[in-house]
Amino acid sequence: MKAAVFHKPGDIQSESIADPVIEQPGDIILRVTSTAICGSDLHILNGFVPQAKDMVMGHEFMGIVEDVGNGVSKLRVGDRVVVPFPIACGHCFFCSNGMSTNCEHSNPKYGPEGNILDNKGGALFGYTDLYGGYAGGQAEFVRVPFADFGPRKVSDQLTDEQCLFLTDIFPTGWSAIDWAMLKGGETVAIFGSGPVGLMAQKAAWLKGAGRVIAIDILDYRLAMAKKANNVDIINAHKQDAIEMIRQMTHGRGADVCVDAVGMEADRSFLDKVKATIHVEKGSMSVLEDCIKAVRRGGTVTVVGVYGTPFDNFPLHRVFDKGIMMRFGQAPVHKYIDELIGLVENGKVVLNDILTHTMPLSEVSKAYDIFKKKEDNCVKVILKPGR
Ligand SMILES: [Zn+2]
Ligand SMILES: [Zn+2]
Questions:
Q1: Beta bridge partners of 31
Q2: Strand 55-56 to strand 80-83: parallel, antiparallel, or no bridges (unpaired)?
Q3: How far, in Å, from the CA of 164 to the mean position of ligand 2?
Q4: Beta-carbon neighbour count of residue 117 at 10 Å?
Q5: What is the pLDDT of residues 299-357, one digit of tens each?
Q6: At residue 209, what are phi and psi to the nearest 5 degrees?
Q7: 136 CA to middle of ligand 2, Å?
C-alpha cells in the first residue's frame, strides 16, 4: 500500500510499504477513504515530539472496514466508520470513566508520571513510539485495535468531508468548551483560529456562549472564523488582544479563555532568548495571554499541545485571580456519539473550514503548504486510492 512515512524531522514521503494485517482478535483493517493533516502532526514533522524510527503518520481518518478480527462483534466488512484518534481498550479504569486518552492498556510506554520521554498516556494513532508506536491512517489501509470500542458507524447520507473532523478536531474543540462548564451567556475568548480553534468556536455557540471572540495573528484565518462561525475577531499582531478583550468585558476579562495553539506559538525574539536559556522547547506565550485575559474566577482550558516543562509559569497570577484550569487531549470516545448526532441533525457544519483536498501521493507537498500556511490553508484532507 501507499502511506505517508515519517523518516526524520522535515521528511515525510508517500511510499509503498507492506499492508497492515490483523494482529489481535479485536483488530479491524480499515480501507481509508479520507484522512486529514492535523496541527499536532506538525510537532512531529518539526521535531518537537521525537520519533527515531520510520512511522506512518496520521490520526484523523475514516473509511470502510476491509477485514475483521475474530474477536470483533460490533463491526462487519463493508461498514463505514470514523475512528477516534486515541487508541483505548474500552474496559480499564480510565476507559470506564470517560478518560479514554489515559487508557492503561494501549501504550507500552504508559505510566502514571507523564514524563517527557516515558510514563505517557494511552496510545494514539501515528503519534510516535512515545504514544504506542502504532501506524497511522495517512495510508491506504490502517490496523485499528480495540475495534469494538473506537470506530463509530456513520450515515451514508453524510459525505466523508462532513464527518471526518469527528475523529479529532471537533471533539477537541468541544472538550475545551465542555471543561469550562458554561451556564449560558458567557464570553469565550479562543486563542488560535486554526482547525481546533475554529471547532472550539462552534462548540462555544452550541453550548450557550453569549459572545465568542477569536484571536489569531493571520487575517485569513480570522476571516474564516468570522464567515464560518460569526465570531468577533482580534488580530494579535495588530491590536493588543488582552486590552481589547478587557474593553469588550467591562474591564473584567473573558469568562473563559481557550488555548488552541500550544507550544509552537509564534514567538517574540525575547521569548526565544528565554527559551534558549532555559532549554525549553517551544513557548507558553499563548497560555500566559489566556491567564492574563481571563477574568478573576474564570476558566482557562488548554487543548494546544505542550510537551516540556516551563520555568516562570505565572503561578502568582493563577492564584491571585483564582483561575480554574484544565488541560489535555480530548476524550473523544466520551463525546463522539453526541457529536455525530449534532452533525446528522444539521446542528453543526464541520467541513466549512476545509480549504485543501489533495491525493495522498502528494503528502509532502500537502504538509509543506499546511506548515507554511500557504495558499490560505486551514485544513487539508488527503485522499488515498490505488
Ligand atoms: Zn489531530
Ligand atoms: Zn482502557
A1: 64, 141
A2: unpaired
A3: 23
A4: 10
A5: 999 999 888 888 889 999 999 999 999 999 999 999 999 999 999 999 999 999 999 99
A6: -60, 150
A7: 19
Above 60 in pLDDT, residue 267? no
CA of 92 to the centre of ligand 2 (A): 4
CA 246 – ligand 1 centroid, Å: 31
Distance from the alpha carbon of residue 59 to the mean position of ligand 1, in angstroms = 6
Q: How far is the CA of 215 from the centre of ligand 1 (A)?
A: 20
Q: Is 259 left (phi over 0), alpha (psi -120 to 50) or beta?
A: beta
Q: What angle do CA 77, 66, 31 make, to 5 degrees?
A: 135
Q: Which ligand is nearest to the CA of 92?
A: 2
